[in-house]
């Protein structure tokens, strides 16, 4: 079997090295047959976006066309009518993957340098072109020398595509990979509005009413809200993981994985591999495997089935957003973790202010389009049936809170904290919780206004998730005259025990101490008749606990 191209995303490098390659070349045929001029392909990371864009670059590029044609020997595209387009167009290929900066000024400096290097390395012939006038040449030289005004940079795609058309006599192909990477960074570092204004102008100049454009393709993880960035770009058609078109072109299909396993001599593990790495439903029907995990497993089969994809990124955006999720989102995530399929609405467009506010539909949309959830069945009213796709992602969700909080939690039943709670040793539980929070909550900035209660709530749900087989666990459910934070009771009706927990965060305006606040939480359990539903199920030995906290200090009343 040929070497597996793990970590490689340059099509020419893979083909020239003779590495194992799974043929995705009919993406070219799909693009040429489809009537759209420009495509946006939102896909999760490590699902082959950059490799596919690299393949498009080498296929279309008029430079070194004859040599590039050899890269496609034996691939399906050679037998397609689309082969007539091979080597016929100049190509502008920009990857924004590494353009993540701490300020707009840093981005401007890095981006102008990036464009200057692009001209020197890929379009040096333009600097000596007889077809261009002195103004065009001055523009290019200004980019190379980094002296061009920033407003001129915004028109780079439009101006360069015009010059390429003049020089080569062919309208170019424009490819933009990971367009949303600098947008994510800009929101985190506080210059989002400046970045959005630039990206809107930059992309509009290249793709809106550009008479020098043949085709365009853009990839990213998220579909940033249209009103923010793609306003007026009616020639851009989006094909996300919810669309049937192009559903087989990113990620690996069952047939492709079967062939890979056969070639690697690992066919006997087919079912286990599917359980771990399959499960994504693209377009509602096409079952897709995560290619990064499959390739890593095949490369090291003796290491067994284990997470690969979830370990390739720090998941910073996910880690930042989940603690902010509203109570409705927390309930959905908890149900998903229990293996349920949840029908809910999502936002296909990502509005960052809603995302950071923890809005249910936006957070679930982030998890879906980022590859942490999949939509098994969906209708036409933005209501989707979501589920966790496979064991790798399930394990990630189960470990997510452990990753936030440190290494202290492994299995719920093995910790002093949970043993004390289940045995209803209230004083021991209170002491263990206080010690755990003191030593393990340093990851979070738990002092931030509005965040702490959700963190404690999510932490307890993460612990209790391990008990789902034997206990009914309820979060934020309407009971009595309000919503209890968490209550749970055994499925075994002969067991009289039950538990109910109410959380309170001490705010600046609260005059009392933590002990009185915990007692207020305990009083709320009784005053609002939270116990009624638990008693209705026949449980009478009920531990009621109010939990009050301020930063890393915790006090319980019970």
Automatic annotation (TrEMBL):
Highest taxon of source:
Bacteria
Residue ranges of domain AAA-ATPase-like in the record: 5-230
- Whether Disulfide bond counts among this entry's keywords is no
Q: Where are the transmembrane segments?
A: none
Q: Pfam families, alphabetically?
A: AAA-ATPase_like, PDDEXK_9
InterPro entries recorded: AAA-ATPase-like_dom, P-loop_NTPase, PDDEXK_9
- UniProt keywords, alphabetically: Plasmid
Name of the protein in question: AAA-ATPase-like domain-containing protein
């Amino acid at each position: 079997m040929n070497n597996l191209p793990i970590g490689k995303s340059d099509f020419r490098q893979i083909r020239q090295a003779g590495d194992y390659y799974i043929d995705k070349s009919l993406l070219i045929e799909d693009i040429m047959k489809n009537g759209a001029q420009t495509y946006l392909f939102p896909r999760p990371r490590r699902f082959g976006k950059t490799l596919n864009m690299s393949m498009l670059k080498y296929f279309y590029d008029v430079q070194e066309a004859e040599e590039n044609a050899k890269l496609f020997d034996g691939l399906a595209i050679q037998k397609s009518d689309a082969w007539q387009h091979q080597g016929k167009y100049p190509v502008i290929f920009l990857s924004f993957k590494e353009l993540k900066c701490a300020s707009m000024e840093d981005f401007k400096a890095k981006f102008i340098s990036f464009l200057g290097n692009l001209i020197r390395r890929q379009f040096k012939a333009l600097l000596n072109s007889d077809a261009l006038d002195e103004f065009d040449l001055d523009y290019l030289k200004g980019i190379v020398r980094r002296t061009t005004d920033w407003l001129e940079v915004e028109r780079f795609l439009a101006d360069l595509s015009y010059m390429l058309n003049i020089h080569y006599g062919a309208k170019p192909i424009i490819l933009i990979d990971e367009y949303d990477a600098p947008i994510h960074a800009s929101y985190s570092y506080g210059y989002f509005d400046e970045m959005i204004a630039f990206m809107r102008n930059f992309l509009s100049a290249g793709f809106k009413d550009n008479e020098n454009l043949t085709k365009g393709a853009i990839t990213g993880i998220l579909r940033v809200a249209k009103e923010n960035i793609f306003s007026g770009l009616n020639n851009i058609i989006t094909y996300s993981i919810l669309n049937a078109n192009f559903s087989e072109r990113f990620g690996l299909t069952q047939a492709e994985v079967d062939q890979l396993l056969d070639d690697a001599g690992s066919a006997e593990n087919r079912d286990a591999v599917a359980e771990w790495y399959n499960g994504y439903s693209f377009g509602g029907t096409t079952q897709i495997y995560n290619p990064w995990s499959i390739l890593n497993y095949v490369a090291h089969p003796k290491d067994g089935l284990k997470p690969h994809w979830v370990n390739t990124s720090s998941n910073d955006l996910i880690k930042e957003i989940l603690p902010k999720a509203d109570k409705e989102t927390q309930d959905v995530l908890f149900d998903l973790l229990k293996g349920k399929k949840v029908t809910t609405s999502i936002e296909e467009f990502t509005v960052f202010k809603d995302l950071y506010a923890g809005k249910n539909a936006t957070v679930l949309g982030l998890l879906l389009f980022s590859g942490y959830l999949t939509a098994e069945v969906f209708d036409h009213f933005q209501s989707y049936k979501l589920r966790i796709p496979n064991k790798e992602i399930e394990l990630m969700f189960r470990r997510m809170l452990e990753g936030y909080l440190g290494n202290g939690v492994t299995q719920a039943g093995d910790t002093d904290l949970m043993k004390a709670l289940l045995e209803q040793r209230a004083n021991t539980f209170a002491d263990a919780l206080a010690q755990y929070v003191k030593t393990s909550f340093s990851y979070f900035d738990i002092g931030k206004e509005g965040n702490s209660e959700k963190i404690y709530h999510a932490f307890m749900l993460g612990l209790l998730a391990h008990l789902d087989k034997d206990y009914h666990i309820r979060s934020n459910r309407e009971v009595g005259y309000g919503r209890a934070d968490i209550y749970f009771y055994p499925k075994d009706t002969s067991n009289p025990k039950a538990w109910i927990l109410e959380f309170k965060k001490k705010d600046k305006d609260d005059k009392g101490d933590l002990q009185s606040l915990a007692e207020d939480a305990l009083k709320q359990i009784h005053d609002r008749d939270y116990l009624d539903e638990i008693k209705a199920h026949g449980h009478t030995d009920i531990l009621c606990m109010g939990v009050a906290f301020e930063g890393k200090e915790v006090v319980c009343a019970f």
